[in-house]
């Protein structure tokens, strides 16, 4: 990159919004400036840093490799400037921004709800994406999301860790969980203290579809290589819970489930010698923004509330 002399905070704010919206015109509308003004500011920013930050097309804009790296630092500067103005110059709380990509965990939704409710801002732009494992890593790698939430265990950790290293990402453990099955309260197994794998024979196994990257290593459920006579893949939590109720199916997860969000589903311990390590991923060497740190703190608080010890 070239010299950064003359870069303004306004240009950085414009750039962060454009990257978040994927469109110069949409970002201009959000910030109440004209599209030519926004476009000119971004072009001037690229000239000052000495590289192309955005790829323009008829469908909008996307980040270049340099733009992806630049965005991480720009977010930090914009957020810190907002906190400075609020603390020392009596400014209004700045517009809060955070995007999170995650596997399908109700505790993440609960933490996200708490974060949004606690946001001290009149304006905010938050995003929560429940998506596939590969896409979580891609979202964080390309700065579409600041952090992601996923699990690893003895089976998948070498593959996941290598992919994270190759993507410039790091994994921070959040908690260790013993495997449970999620089933409907009406399921005959719902009153059992524990269930075995043999108990699950004959029940439909419900798993989250991983799309083109449907490797066993990217499965959201442990024991993904175990054969099942009845397999159903789904794409969202609402569907998987409906199939638990309608078909008596099950899925394997952490055992942390919210009665407020999922009142018809229960978790029953699964008698296997496995552990699930859930954590968050982020860009290596780039500190989380204050908003992301608040979200991580909320996740720890939610998990602790279910009696699960968090990891430092």
UniProtKB/TrEMBL annotation:
One term under GO cellular component: protein-DNA complex
Keywords from the UniProt entry: DNA-binding, Transcription, Transcription regulation
Classification via SUPFAM superfamilies: Periplasmic binding protein-like II, Winged helix' DNA-binding domain
Domain of life where this protein originates: Bacteria
GO MF, one example: DNA-binding transcription factor activity
Family: Belongs to the LysR transcriptional regulatory family.
Name the record gives this protein: LysR family transcriptional regulator
The organism's taxonomic lineage, starting at the top: Bacteria, Bacillati, Actinomycetota, Actinomycetes, Micrococcales
């Amino acid at each position: 990159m070239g010299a950064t002399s003359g870069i303004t905070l306004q240009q950085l704010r414009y750039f962060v919004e454009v990257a978040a919206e994927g469109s110069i015109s949409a970002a201009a509308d959000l910030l109440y400036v004209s599209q030519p003004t926004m476009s000119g500011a971004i072009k001037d920013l690229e000239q000052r840093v000495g590289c192309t930050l955005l790829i323009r097309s008829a469908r909008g804009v996307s980040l270049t490799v340099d733009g992806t790296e630049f965005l991480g630092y720009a977010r930090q500067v914009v957020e810190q400037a907002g906190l400075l103005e609020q603390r020392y110059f009596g400014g209004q709380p700045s517009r809060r921004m955070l995007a999170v990509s995650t596997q399908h965990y109700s505790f993440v939704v609960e933490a996200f709800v708490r974060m949004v409710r606690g946001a001290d801002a009149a304006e905010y732009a938050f995003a929560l994406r429940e998506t596939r494992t590969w896409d979580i890593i891609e979202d964080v790698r390309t700065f579409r999301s600041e952090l992601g939430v996923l699990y690893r265990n003895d089976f998948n950790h070498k593959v996941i860790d290598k992919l994270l290293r190759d993507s410039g990402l790091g994994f921070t453990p959040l908690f260790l969980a013993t495997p449970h099955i999620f089933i409907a309260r009406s399921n005959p197994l719902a009153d059992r203290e524990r269930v075995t794998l043999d108990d699950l024979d004959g029940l439909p196994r419900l798993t989250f579809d991983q799309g083109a990257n449907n490797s066993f290593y990217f499965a959201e459920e442990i024991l993904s290589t175990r054969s099942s006579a009845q397999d159903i893949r789904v794409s969202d939590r609402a569907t998987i819970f409906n199939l638990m109720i309608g078909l008596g199916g099950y899925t394997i997860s952490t055992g942390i489930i919210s009665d407020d969000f999922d009142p018809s589903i229960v978790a029953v311990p699964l008698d296997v010698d496995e552990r699930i390590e859930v954590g968050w991923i982020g860009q290596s060497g780039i500190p989380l923004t204050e908003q992301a740190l608040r979200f991580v703190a909320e996740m720890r608080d939610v998990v602790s509330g279910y009696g699960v010890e968090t990891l430092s």
